[in-house]
Amino acid sequence: MAGQVFHCSVQLTREEGRKIIDGAMAQAREAKLPPLTIIVLDGGGHVVAAEREDGCAPLRFPVAQGKAYASLGIGVASGVSGARNAERTAFVASVAAASQGHFVAVAGGVPILNKQHCVIGAVGISGASSDEDQQAAIVGIERAGLEWGLEPGE
After folding, report:
1. Is 146 a residue whose pLDDT tops 70?
2. Which residue in 16, 63, 132, 146 could disulfide with 126, CB within 3.0 to 4.6 Å?
3. Residue partners of 28: CB distance under 8 A and separation at least 6
4. pTM more than 0.85
């Protein structure tokens, strides 16, 4: 029998992750988007929930995870990181290498914020255009009753 252990602090629950995915999927179907892969990460970069729709190509999972991780790791939406560093290709390549390939600096990764606007997780979506992926992530976060931001002061 396993001994008693201390529980870890959970700021983003599996239930919230499922609500984000369900909200994003519903919006994607309403908008008639192609099949999506959606990844929800907690504040430590661990997968809380993930789903790949039927027909979604296999590389969509690591791309979605990389978008979420880029957002979480830098503290702004993945597309904001890409735009801010469009002329700094060596920096983007270095961060991608430092994160072992888990840094995709294109739109589709959105930070999840608490009431104090601290990052508690991130959503990454891949399958449609980058802007459509980002919009589905935002809608999923909103439908889960949580807050999001692309960058401070937006």
Report:
1. yes
2. 63
3. 36, 127, 128, 132, 136
4. yes
